[in-house]
Amino acid sequence: MHDGVMQIVATGGDTNLGGDDIDYLLAELVLRKYRASCSVSSGEISWSLLLDAKKAKEGVSAAGSGEYEFRIGDAVFSCAISIDEFSEIVDKVLSRTLEIVKSTMLDANLVPSEVARVILVGGSSRLPHVKLLLDKEFPGKVYDDIDPESVVVTGAAIQAYNLSNPLSGTSGGVLVDVVPLSLAIEVMGGIAEVLIPRNTPVPALVSQEFTTYVDGQTSISIHVCQGERELVSENRSLAKFDFEVLPLPAGEARIRVEFRVDMDGMLTVSAQDNVRGIEKSVEINSLYGVTETDIEQCVRDSVENFDSDMQLKELGLAKAECTRILEKMKDIIALGGLSEVVLNDVRGIMLRCEAALSSQDIGMVRDISKQLNAKIVDLKKKEG
C-alpha cells in the first residue's frame, strides 16, 4: 500500500480447500473408531455426522481433548478426540494451504521477510494451528484480533463505496486489482506470445510490434488467447481477426498490436499500421465465464505440463523456421533459371523438409532446415 493505493501483486487459492476438509477428515476418524468399537463394517459419512464433526472441531480447538457424541445412522456414538489426533488432521490440510501461500509469494516475487502483516480471513482461520503455522513462516505480525468472518464483507463495503463515490475524498484507500490469467497473441508455430502476464496490476497497457513471415503476405491474423500454457491450442481463445498489410518481402510489413485492460477487466485489442494510418480493434470481456476454479486449474495445468509444453514450443518454433525457409526456396524456384540437376537436388531436400514438418522429431526438422538454408545461400552465391 502506498499513498492510499492498495495494489494486488498476486492472487492464489484453492476453492476446494477449507474448513470442510477438516470436518470430513475428522468424520472419517470417528467412523473408523465406530467400526472398531462396534466390530461392524457399516456406517457412512452423512450430513449429520459432518455437523457433529464440525462441533467437535470447534470444541477441541477451544478446549483441547474431549469426549463428543456423533450421529452415525440411527446410532449415537460417543468417543474421545485427542488434541494429537486433531492436530494430525489439521496439519494435513494446512500443509496444502502453505503450499498455496508459497506459490502465491513466488508469483509476487516476495519472500516472507518482505511481508509486514498477515490478515486472517474465514472462520477456519480461528484455529490456533493456523496462527502458529503463519507465525513460523512470517516474521511480520499475524492479525488474529480482527473478526475473520466479517473482514471480507468490510473490505467489500469499502471498495463498493470507493467505486460509487470516487470524488468523496473520504475513502479508506483505492484497491488496484490484477489480471488473473495471462493474455497472449498467437505467433508462428502456434506459440502463445504473452503480452500481459498473470498478476499484472490493472489498468494495464502493453504494445508490441509484429511482422510477416512470408513474402507477399497480405494479412496478419490476430488471435488473442488467455491462459498459462505455452501453446495457443492449450489456452482459452478470446478473439480472432485479420489485419490487412502491404504485400512486401517477409519482415518488412510491420504492425503494432496493443492490449489494454481497464479496471473492470475489459480487454481492448487493437492493431495499427502507422505508415498507412489504419487501425482495427476489438473489445473483449476477458473475465466472462472465468471462475476461480478455472483460474486455479489453468495455473495447475501449466505447472504439471511445463516440461512437455516447452518441448512442444521448441518444436513449434523449429517448424515455423523450417516453413519460412521452405517458402523462400519456393520463391527462388518460381524465379526460374535453375538447371534440371539443381532443381532435382533442391526438390529432394524440399520433400524431406515437408516430411520433417509432418513429424514430431525436432532434430530432423532442424537438420533439414540447415540443409535447405545452406542450399539457398549456395544458390545466391552462384547468382552473385
Write up what this structure looks like.
This protein has 384 residues and is α+β, with helices and mostly antiparallel strands. It has 3 domains: 176 residues, ATPase, substrate binding domain, subdomain 4 (Actin, Chain A, domain 4, Alpha-Beta Complex); 105 residues, Substrate Binding Domain Of DNAk, Chain A, domain 1 (Sandwich); 91 residues, Substrate Binding Domain Of Dnak, Chain:A, Domain 2. It has a 4-stranded antiparallel beta sheet. The longest helix has 30 residues. It is elongated and about 95 Å long. The model has no long low-confidence stretch (mean pLDDT 85). InterPro entries: ATPase_NBD (IPR043129), HSP70_peptide-bd_sf (IPR029047), Hsp_70_fam (IPR013126). This is Hsp70 family protein. GO terms for molecular function: ATP binding; ATP-dependent protein folding chaperone. Keywords: ATP-binding, Nucleotide-binding.
